[in-house]
Amino acid sequence: MSLTSWRRMETVFSAAFSLCFLVTTGVHGDSLTVLQSPEFVSFQKGDWPVSGEKIPDLVALTMGFSVQEDLSWPGLQAGPLFQRPRANVLVVVRGVDSLALPQSVASYPLDNPVPFNLDSVAETVHSLFAEDTPVVLQLAPSEERLYMLGKANAVFEDLPVTLQQIRARLSQDGSVLQSLPLNSLSRNAEADLLFLSEVQVLHDITALLQRHRHLAKDHSPDLYSLELSGLEELSRLYGQDSPQYRDATAILASVLQKFGEDVYGLYGNSAVVEVVTVKTFEAPLTRKSRSILESKQISNPGSPYNLAYKYNFHYAVVFNIVLWLMIALALAVIVVGYNLWNMDPGYDSIIYRMTNQKIRMD
Question: Transmembrane segments in this chain: where (predicted)?
């Protein structure tokens, strides 16, 4: 065999080894799937990877907000300047790299699956629309983590947050246990109840929005960020080849599809619904949780959280009125000063004209 043939075989084996190494060291096919999107938010279909740390910037751009660094990603095209969606719903599913979602707008591979949150987007919504009723809800049932802002918190006060509350909700009328085919899932196992509680939270959010439709019809955008880790617990306890894990994956895919359709319809086909599936994050995420009672202090500019001053929605209108009024007054002063400087007192001023006549008479 010639030296050229050996080199070719060496190149082929090297490429195959590199591919196997990538598969076994963390490239699990994590993805970002866009379930629903209005026509003016244009997602292009393709295999362009998006980094996990850029997800908050992507959400901000879909809502029409500016970001500090330009997102050089061809999957999202620039849309109309005066149109933006009424809501953005981001669901993070841990413990699975992909879900069999029957209908979606587009799907992209997820690179660098680092932990992220939407705190920056939430603060932007709250600062720009503090006087209105934006819904800003970030919830992780598995960690009993809740983060809410805005005046619409009273609507979600009845939303079960802790695992004890959610388990009590599962035993009430209208729970998902009465409508879902549990199959191999058990009502008594801790991991199974955690998964079912997350499904119950999705159901309760749409139910609350249906009872309070005025929240979806105002001009202030809403933000939802939900983190589900029930599949991760099932995978750790039973394994990915277990019937419990397969049944839970099928149930969650069906529930997420219906959840996206319901939210999209409640907001008048003007909502973006994304699903991020990640097998596992590369680093743990720690953040301070806040209860519903702390939302009043967050809205107070004198709170100890070092927040910026409350932004008034009419700031742009008042600014333009003051600006152009100052420009008009400045131009008026310039014109009057110019005319006074070039005025002839003997002919243009009646005071000097009468004074001259009086002097001549004397």
Answer: 313-341
Confidence of residue 98 (pLDDT cuts 50, 70, 90): confident
Exposure string for 270-294, b = 16+ CB within 10 A, e = fewer: bbbbbbbbbbebeeeeeeeebeeeb
171/41 same-domain check: yes
Residue 12 belongs to a domain: no
pLDDT band for 181, please (50, 70, 90 cuts): confident
The verdict on residue 198 lying in a domain is yes
Question: For residue 192, what are the contacts with CB-CB under 8 A and spacing of at least 6?
Answer: 185, 186, 234, 244, 248
Residue 252, classified by CB atoms within 10 Å of its CB into exposed (0-12), middle (13-18) or buried (19+), is: buried
* Over residues 154-177, mean pLDDT: 80
Overall number of domains in the chain: 2
Six-digit token string for 267: 């907001």
Domain span at 83? 31-278
Per-residue burial over 25-37, b = 16 or more CB atoms within 10 Å of its CB, e = otherwise: eeebebbbbbbbb
Please state the pTM of the whole predicted model.
0.69
194 in a domain, yes or no? yes
Same-domain check for residues 254 and 176 = yes
